[in-house]
Amino acid sequence: MKDDLMLEAFEARARRRDQRRGFLRAAGSMAVVAAGASLLSGCGDDEATAVPTPTPTPTPTPTPTVTDGDVLNFALNLEYLEAQFYYFAAFGSGLPSSLLGGAGTQGAVTGGRQVAFVDPLIARYAREIAADERAHVEFLRGAIGTTAVAQPAIDIGSSATGAFSSAAQAAGLISAGQSFDPYASDENFLLGAYIFEDVGVTAYKGASPLISNKTFLEAAAGILAAEAYHAALVRTVLYGKGVETPSLRTSADKISDARDSLDGSADKDQGISPKDGASNIVPTDNDGIAYSRTTGEVLNIVYLTKLAAQKGGFFPNGLNGSLNTSTAQ
Asked: How much is the pTM?
């Protein structure tokens, strides 16, 4: 009996709940109809029956797709530059011709000669880095395959109008009309190398999100690590020699400032000697992470311009491949 009473109570509660829901649905429908009738009553017959003209949706401008091949070819252009500089400095000759052909216009190397190193350690460092950079060229050409770009025209000379002298003038190391010779001494060689190495690290880090193939991404990470070792070595030796010759550290810091002035308003560069006198071997942000540069920002530095350009500086005829334009700053 008790169970029957409980069952009847539950059934009655369910019926009342269903009745409330039905009433609310009916009330809601009536409110919508009433609101629509009220709205139409305020309009004329034409306005009530007129169909509003839809606003056309703007057609988005398609964003060019950057392929893994584009990114690797961009890196290959930079590796040609570094490899030729180090090979001439270490061995007195450039890369073999078998490593220079490919898609696009093959260019020649202007300048370059062997450094008469005084410090045998720096000579060994130069030879090791030269071998690494040649290996990077060989690897990238093999990874890209038949679409690998040819070496573009490269300026690594020491004339007063050449890229190294223009970079040194921009940094305030020399005056207009003077020349900077990166092959004249151990110290000049280190400063010349310093122009490239930090840029290479930020270039690979900035390009890594553009690579979709995991195999290529792993390889790019490996090259990034090698370039970071090279950059840290150059910065360490410059700082060490700068302890005895403060002007050398000052020159390196001016190069950092010049690079930073070319790639936009963001601070993506640091010298080797902070104001507190401590060393700064690794340039990082507040989280201890190395900086990234876009391909356009990298080209601002190697083209030696703040403008949107397709050639200049160390690449007098520009890069081969689709990623070849610097960013207007």
From this structure: 0.80
